[in-house]
Amino acid sequence: MKKSFAYPYGVWLAVFILAPILMVVVYAFHNADGGFTLHNFSYLPGFPPIFGRSFWLAFLSTVVCLVLGYPMAYLMSRLSASKQSLCMMLIMLPMWINFLLRTYAWMSILENNGFINQFFRSIGLISFLQSHFGYSLDYIPLINTQGAIVLGMVYNFLPFMVLPIYTVLIKLDRKLIEAAQDLGAPTHLVFRRVIFPLSIPGVISGITMVFVPSVSTFVISQMLGSGKNLLVGDLIDLQFMGGAYNPHLGSAIALVMIILIFICMWIMNKFDDGSSEEGGLLL
């Protein structure tokens, strides 16, 4: 009886995950005439800068999310239950708004006449730069930069870092922390040798949940980067939706991207080999 409840999930998995991946594989190894070919992969040597840029910006956004997200999750886990619920609502509130609308909002904030540049003008920062450093523009270029893309990634994916870490931290056995304190361990040592090692599974999950969508995004880079900083997601999108319609090349790029992402996930999982549970007991 219980196995029957798994059938809908199996159908969902087959239709919306396995079937699309299979289609990508088929398109990647066939040409427009339906014949088997490896020619689609011959174009890949021309795209290393795009792959490198995608992984670099995804790495930066993941690091920023970890630096911001871990303290947030840690502080949340130490609050009362009612305050934890409030913080959770504040973190999830932006997620209730459409992804595109949130990105459009950042476009308005970062544009040359946006809120931030208007603020800089009002406090005299731009006039100071013009008079003392020969700055020629009447605004600070914020949009259409790699920094804007990273900012968009961090804003949209930060909850995916906070929630897994928070979920692990609230389940920690407080007796371990109290035991470490009773043994005379200072606060920083308790965190380094007890709390953080035990929270490694949440950190690994958060890194994976942030890095994977960051490295494959295309909407954020198109809207906040204006196509000037082409990422792999943009490249694949151009092959399927752009003027140079070539789904076979797009599938080949997507297949390589899938393999690289799985390799990155495999490497990250090597850091969570089960030793974290023991590491939290060592003082």
Automatic annotation (TrEMBL):
Membrane topology annotation? Multi-pass membrane protein
Q: Which domain of life is it from?
A: Bacteria
Recite the UniProt keywords alphabetically: Cell membrane, Membrane, Transmembrane, Transmembrane helix, Transport
Q: Which residue ranges run through the membrane?
A: 7-30, 50-74, 86-107, 149-169, 194-220, 249-268
Q: Work out whether the entry's keyword set contains Transmembrane.
A: yes
What Gene3D superfamilies would the database entry show? Answer: MetI-like
Pfam families reported for this sequence: BPD_transp_1 (PF00528)
UniProt keyword annotation of Transmembrane helix present: yes
UniProt main location, coarse: membrane
- PROSITE patterns to which the protein is assigned, alphabetical: ABC_TM1 (PS50928)
- ABC transmembrane type-1 domain location, by residue? 51-268
Provide the protein's localization: Cell membrane
- Describe the family membership recorded for this protein in Swiss-Prot or TrEMBL: Belongs to the binding-protein-dependent transport system permease family. CysTW subfamily.
- Output this protein's name: Spermidine/putrescine ABC transporter permease
Originating species = Butyricicoccus faecihominis
